[in-house]
Amino acid sequence: xAAAAVPGYxxxxxxxxxTLRLKRKRLRRSDPAAAAAxxxxxxxxxxxxxxxxxxxxxxxxxxxxxxxRAAGSPQPLERARRPPPAGASPSAAPFWQLLEPVCENKPxxxxxxxxxxxxxxLTEALHLPVAVxxxxxxxxxxxxxDWSIKTRLLFMSSxxxxxxxxxxxxxxxxxxxxxxxxxxxxxxxxxxxxKLSTELRCAFQQSxxxxxxxxxPWLQLxxxxxxxxxxxxxxxxxxxxxxxxxxxxxxxxxxxTSLYNLLKAKLCPYFYVCTYQFTVLFRAAxxxxxxxxxxxxxxxxxxxxxxxxNEGIEFSLPLVEESRTRKQNNSEVNLETxxxxxxxxxxxxxxxxxxxxxxxxxxxxxxxxWLEEMGVQDExxxxxxxxxxxxxxKHEVQMDHKPESLAxxxxxxxxxLLNFLINxxxxxAVAGPQAGLPPTLLSPVAFRGGTMQTLKARxxxxxxxxxxxxxDIFSLEIVGPVMPHALHSLxxxxxxxxxxxxxxxxxxxxxxxxxxxxxxSSSPALNKETVHKxxxxxxxxxxxxxxxxxxxxxxxxxxxxxxxxxYAYTWKS
Length: 573
Prior knowledge:
By secondary structure, the protein is α+β, with helices and mostly antiparallel strands.
């Protein structure tokens, strides 16, 4: 049958054998040196012999452009011919040539990290950005108390964390029992086989427990500030049901009162009240260098502070007072300098010098005497009392929602604050995804209506290049509301399990960082024995209690990076 009679036949189409013959023919015409090429090696046993003038077989699919290449032009990627495996057909050789360059250019499944020498660089490789200052603290056997809530911890060490996973059912149950009974666990300085230490694994489970109210499994109830985007779309049957909202608030009020009673009886060291606008930290007497119950509220607004004043709650603004004191001290120093300068000027005047201008000119500028001299004192409207009051309150309004708006409540005023928060209508959102949802209560010990929760822990392994060699870096990630006691308990466990060498990156819930402000720097230091005796049954380890009883020293900052080497801590904030 003629080719034109075949339907769909294209005269330009050639079958692979015809293509190979055409390529050989063109190669002979364009490359006269091919005839002078040495004879190819004899074919393997069983292969068909080639003609004496036939060149080495080329891959017909590698390039469709058969034009001769210019001298000096880059050659395509070629690889030495590899003999086919035993038992394979010789015709499979072109497929080896076709696939091998592709395998060479294929990127690795996981790119090796560049040279790194510390945890901060490795966290960047793991897409964990963190910003810390460059100046670390001096080595110390203990790090300062951090009263901020951490949302995530990333511990890293050169030794594995195999002891922190796959806990047995008996170990998990023992850890819960030790937490409920406030069992004190004292580990040795170094554990040789951490994975086989049942005591270590039970203590690890014990340190992960915290108590929460309300408990709604389908909602993440911490953090609450800025959580609208995370909660939107979730089921909230109480948002349109007023009776259900009242039931939730009534149950929440009972839990809140129970926590305060435990705190007053020194059976609870501290707890947090997390609303959608601000957070409150209640601390028992004896903690943070205070001999009375304290409550810190941050951030606050002018409206909230006015409402607290109207309820008779006495409070102070520590950061504002600190700033005012600093300015007064600076003004006193400036006044002394001015007096000294005036004395020098007087001496110079007596010696025949010219007197310097006095500061009375500034007072004259602030008065209205110059208006009388111009004769327009009746035409210019002077500021009234309302304008003067607004001018004085301008600074107070400007500090709303900022760390400087931190309010401190002490002593019996904390009970008044309790009643105020229970009856405060603005405590619960009236619109949005958090509408009708009571604030979150976080506590290290059990309380009425509280639900036992555990922090989530998982291991992450990576490799880092150190001095032109790759080393295994083991990490342990803790996710959840990590309170101050849990951070200290975990570091004590890692100190023994990792033999005094580990690093940690701490992620802070920023609105709570200001809780590290010293509430009263002028108060005398408390007796450690008295604090330990009064708070012996609060549920904290004695070493953790000793750390939390110290006066805060971090100010508005919080610990971002913590490292232990040779059983000594350094940190950055």
